[in-house]
Amino acid sequence: MTGLECTASVPERGVDASLSVRAGRTVALLGPNGSGKSTMLAVAAGLLRPGVASVTVGESPALTCHDDRTWVPPHRRPITLLTQDPSLFAGMSVLENVAFGPRARGLSRDAARAAAHGWLERTGVAHLAFARAESLSGGQAQRVAIARALATEPTVLLLDEPLAALDVDAAGEVRALLAGLLTNVTAVIATHHLLDAALLADDVVVMHEGRVAEQGTRADVLTRPRHEFTARLAGRGLLRTPTGFLAPSPAQVTLAVTGGGLPGTIARVEAHAESTRVWVDVPEGILASDVDPVTSPPALVTPGTAVTCEIAPEVSTYT
Q1: How far is CA 2 from CA 14, 30, 71, in A?
Q2: What is the pLDDT of residue 275?
Q3: Which residues does 186 contact at the CB level (< 8 Å), separation at least 6?
Q4: What is the dihedral sign for C-alpha 75, 81, 85, 90?
Q5: 101-122 b/e with 16+ CB inside 10 Å = b?
Q6: How far apart are CA 53 and CA 40, in angstroms?
Q7: Which has more pLDDT, 165 or 280?
């Protein structure tokens, strides 16, 4: 297995970032819409050709896909990109769709069909082998698209919001499928969902306004964030102190209309399970607290209210 290095400057899209993926690791490329995630994947896949970019698979110069002298077209890169649109070939069977990649690599018709059958088994849709692509449901089509992507045996697999077009049930099923298939695969999954990062990734890279805001292992980034977007996504507060950061969970923050503690103003209130999550702007950052809307004073669930915040003593500072 080999890794991926991708650096790109795309001024017209406001992107200037570098992405590094170690061999056999899955990276979650997290960020809001417009942060540059899809641009980075498009550069890596060869679908976007900026003047300043570098794409290398592994350490061999022979696997340089893009630099100031070289640009390798998408079909010649050992990289496969899967998007939220399955883009299956209409008028062809599921089996023919999945066998297309192996055939393009030079396998015989029988060998390509055998490989396709194997991937359809692994993705749980072997019973649909002879169905027409246009007859599939959204979840079925995405499973077939995953089988087709993996059947090409890519060195690097890129997934751009692959679950965004699915309903909640189908997304959960496909996410569980990917969790099993991405083991020991070099992959990047662009997403803005915490669950995708938590269940699928080994490492996390957070993009904000076209730049890499932070990166590290999944556990480190999601439990010890350094950027407000990451903290909000992970459902944590984030305070900057003279000695480092604090990222208390909502359960570690208590709100009151009056009393001691850190002063702040309720910025946003949102439903969360059986409680209400209240986000508070404080001078040093943001805090979140889960409150019971039935038993709590109405002011504690009203944006604009001045409140005080008590943080549990066990919350530790990190740098």
Answers
A1: 29, 22, 19
A2: 87
A3: 1, 2, 3, 4, 21, 22, 23, 24, 25, 26, 155, 156, 157
A4: positive
A5: bbbeeebeeeebbebbbebbeb
A6: 10
A7: 280
Q: Which domains does the chain have, with CATH numbers?
A: 4-223 (3.40.50.300), 236-311 (2.40.50.140)
In whole angstroms, give the CA distance from residue 35 to residue 310.
33
The token pair that represents 185 in the structure block = 């695969």
Q: Which residues contact 272 (CB under 8 A, 6 or more apart)?
A: 250, 290
**pTM for the model:** 0.90
Is 148 strand, coil or helix? helix
**Neighbouring C-beta atoms of residue 11, cutoff 10 Å:** 11
Distance separating alpha carbons of residues 136 and 142, to the nearest angstrom: 9
CB distance 213 to 206 below 8 Å: yes
In this predicted model, what pLDDT tens digit does every residue of 225-245 receive, in sequence order? 999 999 998 999 999 999 999
| Residue reference for tokens 């269940």 | 199
- H or E, element range at 268: strand 262-272
